[in-house]
User: Fold these one by one.
Assistant:
Number 1:
Amino acid sequence: MALIEMCKLSLIAHSADRSKILRQLVKLGVVETVRSKRLERTSYHDNPTGEAKYNSLLSKLSFVFTFFKERNQYALKKQIEIPVPLNLTRINRLLDPEELELAGKNEYDLLQNVAEIEELNSQLVDNIARASRLASRKEQLLFYKDLDIKFSEIKDNKYSCLRVGSLSAQGAEKLAEKSSFPGILITRGTSGRALLTAAIFHKDNEQAAVNALAQADFMPCPFAEDIFAAEEIAKIDARLQECEQVTNEITQKAVSMFFLAEKFKILYDYYLIAKKKVEVMANAAGSGSTFLLEGWVPLPDKEKVEKGLLSVTKNIYIDFRPPQEGEAPPVYVKNNKAIEPFQSITNMYGHPDPKADSDPNFFVAIFYFLFFGIMMGDAGYGIIIALACFAFYLIKKPKKSTGHMILVFGFCGISTFIWGVIFGGWFGIDAEVLRSSGFGRFLLKLSWFNPLDEPLMMFGLALALGGLQIAVGFAINAYNRWKENKADAILNSISWVIILLGIGIVAIAALVNKPIVNTIGLISTGIGAGLLVLGGTVGKKGIIKKVSGSFGNVYGGVNVFADILSYSRLFGLGLTTGVIAMVINYLANIIIQLIPNFIGYFAAFFILIIGHTFNLGINLLGTYVHNSRLQYIEFFSKFYQGTGKPFTPLGSQTKYIFLDN
Amino acid sequence: MTIGSVIALIGAGVAIVLSGIGSSIGVSRAGQAAAGVIAEDPDKFMKCLILQLLPATQGLYGFIISFLVLIKIGALGTIVNLSATAGWGIFAGCLPIAVGGLMSAVYQGNVAVSGIALVGKDGDQSTKAMLLTAMVETYALLAFLLSFMIVFLPAWA
């Protein structure tokens, strides 16, 4: 349970061994490289072409993933058979580094597949363009589908003229109203839309007729081919179907390649790591034939790294040294299996800074566990959460961060169960109903008090736990600052521990009704307050600054009490869960009373399932957020900076795999 | 039924209606922002949905308080005849969550909108967006607690 000390690795080796050494470092997975010192007669060798090469390969693979995703959606829509379902999420197993190397060795086979996929894509793009051309022609032709002459037959003869085209409804009205058209107008189509119009007029009237048509916004037919519109539409439909057929065939080919997705994912990360290696080498100063590589290694892994490197080559110089003044090593936190999952909560706020922080995860785990149960406060829900999370964990075996969050919720399910038993909360079932059965009476016997019946007690409990957590926060702060400035630690941090302890004793005195205990509490509070007033003077010069410092300290105390009041949310959220659960049961009960047959029971069952699922879901969300908030704002503000840089060893930044190292 | 009981019932209505209005505004604003992000990247649906849901709790708090009022005056069975003073007392108890819920849900909705924009830019920051949004809810929770204490604790008669 602690921050792991880091040491700096420096190694000098032959350029010829470069790739072997890098491969070994990835396999070891405990070295975070940094920009090395520049020794005499060495320089850094950027390798922009190497980086560009990997960038282009990575974007090729990203294209494959997008193509697969789109084809998958299409196949699902058109019910095309998919032999292997597409999975583009992280591969949920630890990958042997050898397997990664193997992916690299087989890259040419896979790149050939990528080329095939690119070919498929260009066919698809052509096909889609063709289909959209056809569709827009069809759209235009559809207007003339009722025209029973060929387009080529729309022409004038010796004495008369024929014009076919579209006329807006208003245009048609305009012409009809004025009866100004010197000829015959035939219109077809539903009113309100553009009308298919044929205009026939004598050649002598051509000028007047054309003008009248133009004023009515007549659009002449754009086609002149020797075809019937309806026949042409049928032909286009056939061609469109061909296009769809082609799309389906391309999709089928794409779908049949989905089994390669896993290989592509591994190859993607192979390139990602290869690109990282190029970066590493760009930061290693080198002469013509040697290079100097530096990085951080957790102290316990020192020997493993040394042995691993020597097994690759004997021509290597390795040195480890502790961090020097002014260096900021990355942070590596290691805790036991029970506390480790809660690290993800702390890390969301920030990683501990080795200079200012000690590892808060032990306390975060305890308090997060403790508070979660109070905010949910229902034993039934607790059982469901714990069972669901642990079952998911055992069956799916999620890796690393996802697995940690699932475990956090699993543990918190246990906490919810325990507090639920204490509060007598079982799916929000009314205490009177519980009392009517033997088992219910047994469950109630286990409970300490019901927050609904004794809200003040619950309020007190919430604030007391808040005071406890804040006192612990101040104690850790004192511990962190002890070496630097003992007076400051005692006067400004321990003073608060004493004050909060005193207030706690006063509260207990009120419960047990012993005046002597009360006096002890008051004295303790007084001593703490005295220390705090003195604490304001630490590091201040001049009487005025000392006095104002003391005032500032006392005034700042208001914030501490505001923080403690913030823990009333423990009560508030617990109340929400309980009351909503109660309301759901109430509604189900009313339904049964209204419809006392199987339909009623069925409806009530439905209400119970949906209602409790909703209540569980929304309160889980609320509890997760507010519990985190208590840790971050109220607890961490007392002692934790969280400005550390997390340890990211070579080979840990992958997108689709977890490397087993 | 006495005038006191009626006043208490109006209080229950005010609590649920005002906090419900607040939540509706907050959730709808967040939902509109979420739709934009989801159009760009459908995979962010869950993250956006969670953020959209955060301003919904005020409406729930209001609902709980009105339900407690109903229990208190026995509106689910035979109605207790409250004095006018007791009715106004319960009415006063409904006000914190009614007004506090209304205002905080609207403002929480605004933070949720910004949080959704943050998720749109960088999906990994969704937890931080959630925490920022939850900060506003503190005041709704405090209002809820006060309402609960006024409505539920005293023996109104």
Note: The helical segments of chain B are 3-40, 45-53, 57-72, 84-121, 126-152.
Number 2:
Amino acid sequence: MRIVIHYLESAEGIAIWPIIGLVIFFSFFLSLIYYIYHLDKGFVKDMADAPQDDGIEKNENLNNNTDL
Amino acid sequence: MEHEHFSYDNKIVKYFGYATILWGVVGMLVGLLIALQLAFPVFNLGLEYTSFGRLRPLHTNATIFAFVGNAIFCGVYYSLQRLLKTRMFNDTLSWIHFWGWQLIIVAAAITLVMGFSTSKEYAELEWPIDIAITIIWVVFGWNMIGTILKRRVKHMYVAIWFYIATFITVAVLHVVNSFELPVTLWKSYSLYAGVQDALVEWWYGHNAVAFFLTTPYLGLMYYFLPKAANRPIYSYRLSILHFWALIFLYIWAGPHHLLYQSLPDWAQTLGVIFSVMLIAPSWGGMVNGLLTLRGAWDKVRDSALLKFMVVAITGYGMSTFEGPLLSLKNVNAISHFTDWTIAHVHIGVLAWNGFLTFAMFYWLFPKMFKTKLFSEKLANIHFWLGTLGILFYAVPLYWAAITQSLMWKEFTPDGYLAYPNFLETVTQLMPMYYTRIFGGALYFVGALLFVYNILKTAASGVFQANEEASAPALEKLPKKRIFGEKVGPWLERKPVLFTFWVLVAILIGGIVEIVPMYLIKSNIPTIESVKPYTPLELEGRDIYIAEGCVECHSQMVRPFRSETERYGEYSKAGEFVYDHPFLWGSRRAGPDLARTGVVTGKMYKIDSWHYNHMINPQGMNAQSIMPPYPWLAEKDVDLEVTPVKIRVMQTLGVPYPEGYDEICVAVLMEQATEISENLKASGIEIEPQKELVALIAYLQRLGRDISESSEHAAKMPEKLELGLPMPLPTDAAALASAKELHVKHCFACHGMSGEGNPIGPNLTDNYYLSGGEPEDIYTLIAEGNILKGMQSWKQQLSEEQMVGLTSYVMSLEGTNPPNAKAPQGEQYDR
């Protein structure tokens, strides 16, 4: 750790920080785009429907109601 | 599959809902009052508890943490249970959370008006309340994570991701920014100093907007918009991108609040780059919200609550477009320290937070009370009042901002400031301030209709405290990824691991920005002549903090010619190394004070000027909007605490000598007595121990560290003899225009009729302190006599104007106005 601190204390060319930041973000962003592009359609639809499905009795279909 | 039966807790939702309504009304009412204060200082009511500096933090805290905070909890407790198909983890935790949060709000309201404040924006609350917030916040997070763990659905919907990010990030921000060393029960000093404190504070401040006003509301949008429109969100894929890109980028943007200020360039650049990139995820989110309504715009026409949603989401888009714009350095150079910032945040809070809250409640309350909304018509009226209110609030403020900024920056053809008197640039804004009050009032009236409508709805329905539901039990999920399962869906069913990765995403930006600021010494070049504050100045600084002076006065001269001409040398990072906390400010309703102590500077005023100005600012400048502070002349500095303060400062690394705490009271009294004697010479009686003496000492210290040599020069002024550049005018027109100048510039120290006052001598007798020849009078006006308090006018007035004033002063001789001051100096007979 001391070595790291020493290195930072004497860092020259501090402009490296924005560049590191950008590189980290863009690689993250690109992999994210790749990931959402390849997501399973059924999974996406199920997730998008989540707010409408809250398990409240009157919203349940008839089958479930006959269970009661 | 076996169905489990359970019930949703609506009671806690209702309570948070009522708390939202109560604090919303209080917060807006205080906002209306401080808007009135900025136009009519009489609304400061002459009480310390109701002066602008104390009420403005109350307004921001009440609207953000009380109004929006309770609305967040209300919406989260409702949607979380339903999205996860389970009751909240633990009802006791829910109620500890509710009552704890309300107690914090009450404690905040009381302490802020009492003047217990750290002065760091949106984090003004003192350390005991900070600890309470941490505890209650953890209770909230515990309850939420617990609920997620006992859920009956496999994956977490995107709204819940936003709630998780809110919980974890606000916790980190609050804890890191609140590191402070207590002095007494209600006083502490920030662990950080100067530039570091500024960076940490704006990393916090910016992300308080991001993770308290934005991410939780995005979560609410992703739940309540599909609910209200009865259709799924436009693109669930886009919402994933929105979430991760937003939380990753937001955390870096803090330094855009400190552009052109004493912050290393690399940090400013980081802030700008990431702020500009933020527009992408933000607009992705807005588009996702608006397109959800595609093909359903006919519903918007008929439904007030959908109208509220549309304007809320549009407001989100507006502010997140404006944010990156304001982060560009050249735009920021114009917008910063003006009302633009105020307009910007109000688009965010009034449209995005306010309107989304209203929409949510118009949907939620009829649902919880099993009834219809009491009046759709009233809701529509509310919508129009609110929308017009926002426009009447924001548009005049944009106008005011540009007007004032251009006036600050305008130069005459001769190269002088066109408006050297700061007050002129404030007076110009008054029509815009009146309109802002009107806009705020419209919005407030709309909110009152909302309250009435909601209460009537509640009264007409039957509240169901526990709503029955059923769902199949969740099968036991394997910990490891199932074959073929992608990382994302796997992570979305692993809440603790998910939370950990959110934490990683938000920590990267903070670490990259804040850590180097500590370790790399070249970021804050040391200035040899910068010394710790004297005990009296330190006490004065604490009064400055308690009274909220920083709400209107910056202490940060940016390196622009328009600022160095007006205030003096631009501010350096090394000047602030002993400032716990920093006091750079973010808005100039009054002038910058960083150079008030520089004796040869443009901002310098003598002690008696400060005294009179604090007691009755309007007496010195009728148009001044500064609140009066008469109580400072009556309250004593608590000398028992001074040694504790010195010891705490020593612990923080401020180099007071060993044992200084034992002699600091004596040192303090010595300096205070000197100021008190000085004031006595001007005919002002004040005991040395009074708070006002300490405040004057602090103001006279500002900027002095880096101007020692110029002070030396002021003590031995070169004796100048200027000749008259033109003959003395004697015609009535010239004297009349000189009189106008007198009323504008001179009356504060010499009285309206030249009769003199505790600051300046009588101009109507034939006694003179610096000679009575026309050349002597002209020289005095042009060059001033800094040590006696007469300022130099040659930078602000033309030669012709100064000659006119000379003639005018001579014409006053023998006019014998009432209340004339006793003669000073030597008699001179013409």
Note: Residues 194-229 of chain B form the longest helix (36 residues).
Number 3:
Amino acid sequence: MTAFIFPDLGPYAVEVLSAYAGTLALLLILVAGSVWQGRKTRIRLEEFEARRTAKRQKSTENL
Amino acid sequence: MSLSGAVLPWVTALAVAMVVGGLIWGFFFTPNDFRQGATVKIIYIHVPAAIMGSGTWFMMLAASLVWVIRRHHVSALAAKAAAPVGMVFTLIGLFTGAVWGQPMWGTWWEWDPRLTAFLILFLFYLGYMALWAAVENPDTAADLTAVLCLVGTVFAVISRYAILFWNQGLHQGASLSMDAEENVADVFAYPLWICIIGFGLLFICLVLLRTRTEIRARRLSALIAQERMA
């Protein structure tokens, strides 16, 4: 089995690693924010629609 | 909504596979450049992010034109949904460009036509998002942002094509072109292409997700308004 070798970045290790770390952090924030916002909106809409349906059913029963 | 819901998981899986695969290939399994050393590895994030940064604006332009001509609400919402994605890609392009430029050019920043146009494009993204947030009526917001998008297209074009007609500045020519003499070596080009396709798929996946959110948010606000009026 060959051992895993981390590439030799020489004198530019800080630049290369910070570029990758910054990019991954920004992408992570974007993806997590989009998913969180999407989930929050979906739940709010579903709750509202459920409440609305229940309200309508109740008013139909009262008739 | 049903079509985008069915497509989304597949696009997401493909985007993750290509971005992760391309970055691992580029970072771990490509050699250092004889002149730029290990900084060449920044190409796998800088180039795809910069392409998507200006590409997103063109997508927003197309969606805005559909809104202006056909008054199709989903196109306006798609443009709105794409803006934060394009803004982040542009920011990544600027950040990685500065980090790459420092050791290669000896400066983090240069008022080069391409770099300056890209910075202005980033500011246009911020302005576009701020305008959407500031105007209460969604149709008016869509109209105003469509005009802003049209104006900002000038800088999207310059940031992408400045090197072809503006013969000055530090930024080098195209990394990938039809001219074989200008191209990067194949050993760098293959993982780079995978990263570009991966970033493109990531863009599609995020825009689909965010557009679905915008449609739901619009429906929710319409229902709330309807209930208040009843």
Note: The helical segments of chain A are 13-62.
